[in-house]
Amino acid sequence: MSTIIVGHDGSPTSDAAVLEATRLAEALRSRLHIVMAVKRGAPTHVFEGETWTVGGVDDAERILADAATRYGGNIDITTKVLMDDPDDALVAEAERLDASMIVVGSKHTQGLARILGSVAAGVVHKAPCSVHIAHTTD
Question: Model pTM?
Answer without folding.
Answer: 0.81
